[in-house]
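User: I'm writing a tutorial on reading structure tokens. Could you give me a worked example: one chain, its sequence, then its tokens, then a sentence or two explaining what the tokens reveal?
Assistant: Sure. Here is the example chain.
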Amino acid sequence: MLTLCRLLVACMVLSLYAFLATAQTADAPIQTLLQTHGDILKKSSRKTIGPAIDALAQSGMDEALTVLERWQNKDLWVAKDSGLFVFATKKDSKTLTIFDVAGGGEIGDASKKAFKQLKPNSGIRSMIGAALVQFQLNSPDADTRATALTAIERDPQPSHLTALRASLTQETDVALLARKSRLERLLTIRFSEDDAERITAIEGFAGDLGVDVRAALNPLVQTELGAGDTLPENAIAVDVAEMPDNTAYDLLISKELAPPHVSTDMMRDALIANIDNGQVAGVQVASLDTAAARLAAYTTLADQGAAAPAVTDADIAAALDSFQFYRTYTNAPIAVALAAQDALDAIETSVAVNQAADLALDAISLASIYFLAAIGLAITFGVMGVINMAHGEFIMMGAYTGYVVQLVVPDYTLSIIIAIPAAFAVTFAAGVAMERLVIRWLYHRPLETLLATFGVSIALQQLAKNIFGTQARPLTAPAWLDGSWIINDVVAISYIRIAIFVLALLFLGLFLFVMNRTRLGLEVRAVTQNPRMASSMGINPDRINMLTFGFGSGIAGIAGVAIGLYAKVTSEMGTDYIVQSFMTVVVGGVGNIWGTLLGAAMVGSLQKGIEWFNPSNTLAAQTYMILFIIFFIQFRPRGIIALKGRAAEA
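And here are its predicted structure tokens:
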């Protein structure tokens, strides 16, 4: 019975081989191609497999794509007896299901022992993946083509250049065509053998800010310092005076073109070797206790031929005059390298301009934050002359109001829309309460006002800690404020900061409208300019002070919502802005909205400028900024725009 089973298996194998021989004849182009490279395919060595992969990729056969994909997935097998290549999947531990490489049709089942599996290692799979990209570049699916471009960008190969160029004429998607064209120029710079093509591609990137461009150009300008009797062809002469100290002579030593310096150890060994009756070159050993004495003795030995001559300054100068020093480009012909250097110089200029623009955007963004934080203080301090040290806590109250609203309204966009008027209402009420209970009794007493509001500040911080705890609370921005507006690889600004800038402009407009177009604004201006005359005209200064203080506090609450969108919301967050708010108001001019705007711009620009020079130490930047402002107010004690009226008299 066992013998019969073996005979059946043998017959099945023989019939399978016969079927393979007929179904996969030499006439099948893909099988012929595989047989041509059969030896290196079976060996599967990363060092030798390249020609086989290239032949499949460049064959133009539809079956080649399938072969590469299934080979990468370890589905490619070869029959041990016939040497024919097949696709196979494991049916069980001993049996394979065989498929034809030409068309993929199922052939049948066979013993696993009759076939050898081709198992590409990670290096070969990477090479296969690079070859597959060439097929994907011309795929009818745009996403597949985009994926192929991403793969090339991550691991470019010389073979990709030809495939990219061939796919350009067939690309119909405008965005993908732009990506392909850019990538084709980058690969031309790296892999093209035509210097004219490389130079043309390089010149096309002049001023381009892409990091990928700099990554492609930087290797081309790598140089190596050399020296010789004559200046080699394609080398650039270097002036010795422009080289760092000792670099030129050390180069001559390394190339054995000049004698080395005599080291201290060499000098000591030579002196010891030439001791005779307690003397060296006629000098008592006991007298060689200084460097000058040892050098003199060594020089005598050198003159006598008993030691290597010491290299003098005159020898060094003569050696430097005897040779040509030059730089050679190590990774590119000189014409290509010079074109790359010119392009990099243009890029550096463009980077510098864009860095200045990015710094200006950061300064404007920071200025808008300071303006929002200071506008309420400008109202209370300018109109009422009250030094409100609790102003930062009103900012904190506004941020916590936004947090509470988001707990109730989970929609972030709607919650922010609700939080802005809610924060104004809460902090307006708190400001009115503070004015009625504390401030009204301390008018014209600035020191007492400062101390009282400082105490209120501490009390409000502790109250916030008792209610919300000491951990930072999230105030989440809507999804449409996520991310940044990326202008190029250098200039970018977050959407939250853009929103804060727009909010600052809106409140500037609101303030101007209230002050210039409403009865409240008219009465506030009257009280600011001449409180006695305003009182005689029927205006209640006490009521105006209360509303003004509440209005300023309400604006601080709105500023808290805006600031809380990107800063941590804690009980101490107000202290981060109180100093900058006072500096903004004082520099701009107390009580003047345009002065506050200019002050915010000046403080924000100054801080960003100092941080640019010293980016690792923001505390130092704030210190320098405070010192500058102290120096500034020595010359303009009333700020950029001085206020006339009660505040000026105070």
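What the tokens reveal: The two ends are 119 Å apart (CA to CA). The longest strand covers residues 85-90.
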